[in-house]
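@channel anyone free to eyeball this complex?
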Amino acid sequence: MAEKNKAESSKKIRTRFAPSPTGWLHLGNARTAIFNYLFARHNGGDLVLRIEDTDRERSKKEFEEAIIEDLKWLGIEWDEGPDVGGPHGPYRQRERFDIYKKYVDILLKKGYAYRCFCTPEELEAEREKAKKEGRPYRYSGKCRHLTPEQVEEYLKEGKPYVVRFRVPDGRDIVFEDLIKGEVKFNVNDFGDFVIVRSDGSPVYNFVVVIDDALMKITHVIRGEDHLSNTPKQILIYEALGFEVPKFAHLPIILGEDRSKLSKRHGAVSVRQYRFDGYLPEALLNFLSLLGWYPKDGKEILSKEELIERFDIEDIHNAPAVFNKEKLYWMNGVYIREVLDLDDLTNRVINYLKQYKEHLDKEDQPVAELILQKPYEYIKEVVSKVRDSFFTLKEFPKRAKPFFVDKVELTPEAVKHIEKITPEVAKQIVELYLQKVKDMETFKGEDFKKVAKQVAKELKLKPGMVFKTLRVALTGETQGVSLDLLVDVIGKEATEKRLESFLSNLG
RNA sequence: GCCCCCGUCGUCUAGCCCGGUCCAGGACACCGCCCUUUCAAGGCGGAGAUCGCGGGUUCAAAUCCCGCCGGGGGCGCCA
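replying in thread with the prediction:
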């Protein structure tokens, strides 16, 4: 026994993430992938990526590629998979059909499975009947006891059939879930289930076992929606003499209305968050904290820190509501505190290049102008405004005055001018312009000084002067500190903007 | 309907296994004040959870036991 324990504990930990390529990577699946990754890395184990494309109808190659790209973008690395290969491949289920067939034959031969010739209509009738009688539906087992001769005959007739697993009667299946604790099912709750469809393709519940066993997966970490599949799978493991892995079922992610997070709740794909200007580090960090919490309570964690702290035992077992507000905040933390300036600048530039079409309409021309500027200039602007944007997508909005010389007034700005009257606005701006022109140099630190002088000479409130200058310089009534702005755009551009404001005033 | 899982501030959660230090701690959001040329950021402070409910056990329960209620997931020739 002691020896066995030793052997077990020294066995390399292997986890897997097995998405089906039927859509973009969903946030819930991304989190599952993250937990598999963190668990494997924390324990010095391997992560396997496997594509579950047995659903011919819905699986698409382009989704497989998109999922792989999004996983990489998030920073998840796997040791074996369809793109990198490995000793237990192939890693696409459609390429493994021969393997599955072999195991179906074994089950058939040993009597753990049998051919079922019931038609969909017959099954439908069974289902209806069960419903009417108010009992849960289970396959009747009609074809369980077909004689070999009958089977032979049906086969000869070319009658279509499925293969069903012969579920033993009345047994309790008990297993220790790493998150849920002891979970018990009785096999009577489900009937003989299908493992091969009538078109010859194997079904998920079956192939997942074959693959996990052959790929030497030691820990199956997946969504809680798979919990009730587990007993069926354990039956197959046992029938085939495979070692049963450890299971960990993650609580699902809920939308704001406390139902399973789905398209109805808005953006639910990793890709969508990329489009919206989220940083992979922030998304990874945030998703990790959905249902798991580090012992030291530190929330802003790099990938390395997550790996170091991750412990599957600490996963909270209640479902978690996806709180986009907090993700948004966290993305802001990464933008203003975590990333270094060059890194951030490059991300802004790349985002603008790659996802221009996802910007708001009015920001697109701004993005063009930004991209025309030299790197150093953009970097300087980023350093000035990084405190005020939360997603890369918002950068053009915040940085617009640094790039757009042609100032257009917003409705609020127009309102402000009307309120103080155009005459007063003209007075302020003219005097300010005059003073700037008289100066040899005009730097950010001078901005305030001059504005105060203008206020004093005109006997106006400083606030009014500042606001008016803001309107003249940016067309807006709020935004970056003006001293930072003029410092970056320089004396000449400042004068030009003031002049054009005046000429527009008429 | 049946099976399974879950239930601490609006949300994410700490604490629960090993009852007392918890009239329950942190984070987001919210409110107020400060900083300030505005917005934001930042600093400080505040409000917000009778620990789903009801019974036990105990000197003592968020923590242990039972029942109930509520929420969610699964019951396919989808994964």
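from a first look: Chain A is about 50% helix and 10% strand.
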